Amino acid sequence: MQLKEIGKDIYDLDAWLDEGLGAEGTPEREKNREKAWEEYNAQILLDA
């Protein structure tokens, strides 16, 4: 994945995320969002 540079040290992260995780609102993106949320909650429990 290549980041598209918009300006000096400014990059289009939305396009990068869409390429890697799927476009916003797609089942693939939602699956990745759920997985990230589960990982986040697991880390909170481990830290407690």
Number of strands: 2
Count of domains: 1
Strand order of the largest sheet: 1-2
Q: What is the H/E string?
A: EEHH
Distance between the termini: 36 Å
The rough form would be described as: flat
Mean pLDDT: 87
Low-confidence stretches: none
The portion of residues forming beta strands comes to 5-15%
Report on this model:
This protein has 48 residues and is mainly alpha-helical. Helices cover 62% and strands 10% of the residues. The protein has one domain. It has a two-stranded antiparallel ribbon. A hairpin with a 2-residue loop joins strand 1 (5-7) and strand 2 (10-11). 0% of the residues are buried.
List keywords for this structure.
48 residues; mainly alpha; two-stranded antiparallel sheet; 2 helices; 2 strands
Topology:
Layout: E1 5-7, E2 10-11, H1 13-21, H2 27-47
Antiparallel strand pairs: 1-2
In short:
This protein has 48 residues and is mainly alpha-helical.
